[in-house]
Amino acid sequence: MPVLEIIGWVGSAVIVWSMMQQRILRLRVINLVGCLIQVVYNGALEVWPVVALNVVLAGVQIFNLYRLLRTRHSPAEYAVLRVDPAGEYLHHLLALHRADIQRFTPSYRQASPHQEAYLIVRGEETVGYVLLHDAGDGVAQVDLDYVIEKYRNFTPGEFVFHSSDVLREAGYRKVVTAPGMREPYYAKIGFSQTGDRYELALTS
């Protein structure tokens, strides 16, 4: 098989693979790579309409990537809503994501009326939620910090811990995570590791 034909097949395979991704950032990056490969392949064959199509698609992905990365830490894009830990909507989310929750936070069992629950929303979409309880002495103990797979390349939990004032206004001075959480992202948003936990001092 000629090298040029292999390049064409690889480009097509990359685009198909991109459409199978659940994480929005990964989808856009892989799709962009596939479009660029198709630009090279069809340019070599001088199939200019297909080249133009893939140039436009690559431009769309670059624009969307820029917008995603520019707003990933923007409080204007996300809101934090405190909800009833015994509420039906939260329990629906917990049941919906039960298997995934056990994979990332195996120590988590179930919501308790003694916990505090915060939803992280982007527009009309709930992208994650944080459940915690008062451990005393101004310490908020995180019991569950979950983000749906689509937004897992981002760190929306930071809007509970940093960008909103919900925890400081509740009187907390420090946040401590649950032990043994898998694939933790806390070091990226200012937490310090202590054993198998992460801690963050809340500043005014």
UniProtKB/TrEMBL annotation:
Name used for this protein in its record: YgjV family protein
UniProt lineage: Bacteria, Bacillati, Actinomycetota, Actinomycetes, Micrococcales
InterPro entries, alphabetized: Acyl_CoA_acyltransferase
